Every structure is written in C-alpha cells, then in structure tokens.
Amino acid sequence: KLFTHPHRRYIGIDPPAQEISGMGLAAITYSTTGRIFVLGLGDVSMDDTETFEMNMIAGKFTTQVITQLMYLGKKASRITVVPVVECNNNGFVSGGIVKSIRIHAIQCGCNYVMPFKRQWFNESINVDVGVLTDPKTKPGYITNMISLLVDNRIAVSSRCCTIGAIHRESYTTPSLAAVLETMTSEMLQWKN
C-alpha cells in the first residue's frame, strides 16, 4: 500500500552524475488496476549548473505536475507527493532536490510523504533522501520496466508536463526511428 495508493503522485529525479550529464525527471501515478500513468517527463542538461539551479528545476517540475492535476479537477488537498530521488553520487545534492520537492508540494497545498525510512527498507536507501542503485538492484528495475512495457501497463497523460530541451527554440522533434534506436542502444548496455 505504501507505493500503490491511488492519490499518490511520484516525482522521480535522477540527478546528474557528472558535469556533462543531464538530470532526468519523471512524474507518475498508479491506477487501482496496476496501470502506471505518466504525468510528466523531463531531461535537463546540467552543463555548468549550480546546485540551486537543480533544486529550482525540481521545484518547477513539481509545481507543473501539481498544477496540471488541479487543472484536471484534482483538489490539492487530495494529492500526496512522494519524492523518489536517486542519491548514489551525492546525498547532499539529492537531499536538496528532495527538500525542493517537499517545499513546492506543501506550497501548492498538497500532502507530502517521505517513504525512504528503515521501517520500510532494510537496504538500498539513504534515509529521508532517496534510493541507491547498484548492480544488485538495477536488473530488477529494468525487469520491472520491461514487464510494464510488454504488458501495456503504461499510459501517458494527455496533459503530460515536460521540462527540458523541448522548451528551447532550437529544439526539433526526433523521429520515431531515432527514439527507438536510442532506447534499444541504452537497454542493450544492461545486457551484460
């Protein structure tokens, strides 16, 4: 029940691991039938970015997702925001992102739940911050994702929020072939 409550909205963020990498963002919710609805997605280049800018982006994305839900008729008081932030590289930076998500959720009038506690997880977490990924847990994440895709249990909201390169004037939409090629290439990296 911790993760499948129908009013919970998960804001997942994978902070950049290096100066040249980007920050991935996703917002999802579960239906009572086990389907996952994508509420928002983002990929933000982090070239020469300061920590406060990462926190600002996380907060803006959180507010966008909540605003879209309210536009669709959801009452803020019935929305619970749950952060899922990867924290392998820097717990301090990840903690700042979590704090930004919490502040923006509460400012919007939503509830906030921090699930990463020892009472629920014995390992692979940084308490009150987020998840730790390692060679032991990654295959499980990938298997779950493949299962969701194969079972057609992922749906994208008609009002999906985005943040990232798509907002730049120079952005061009990639072809379906290019998207599939990139996805295939990235999935094959985990084969070995």
Helices and strands in order, then pairings?
Elements: E1 8-14, E2 22-30, E3 36-45, H1 51-71, E4 80-85, H2 91-107, E5 111-112, E6 125-126, E7 130-131, H3 138-150, E8 154-164, H4 176-188
Parallel strand pairs: 1-4, 3-8, 4-5
Antiparallel strand pairs: 1-2, 2-3, 6-7
Helix pairs in contact: 1-2
Give an overview in words.
α2 links the parallel β4 (80-85) and β5 (111-112). The protein is built from four helices and eight strands; from the N terminus they run βββαβαβββαβα. α1 (51-71) runs parallel beside α2. Helix content is 33%, strand content 26%. The chain is of the alpha/beta class. The protein has helices at 51-71, 91-107, 138-150, 176-188; strands at 8-14, 22-30, 36-45, 80-85, 111-112, 125-126, 130-131, 154-164. The strands form two sheets. Strands 5-4-1-2-3-8 form a six-stranded mixed beta sheet, covered by helices on one side. A two-stranded antiparallel ribbon has the order 6-7.
| Main β-sheet description | 6 strands, mixed
Low-confidence stretches: none
**How would you classify the quaternary structure?**
single chain
| Strand segment count | 8
Features:
192 residues, alpha/beta, six-stranded mixed sheet, two-stranded antiparallel sheet, 4 helices, 33% helix, globular
Give a quick summary of the entry:
By secondary structure, this protein is of the alpha/beta class. It is built from four helices and eight strands. The protein has helices at 51-71, 91-107, 138-150, 176-188, and strands spanning 8-14, 22-30, 36-45, 80-85, 111-112, 125-126, 130-131, 154-164.
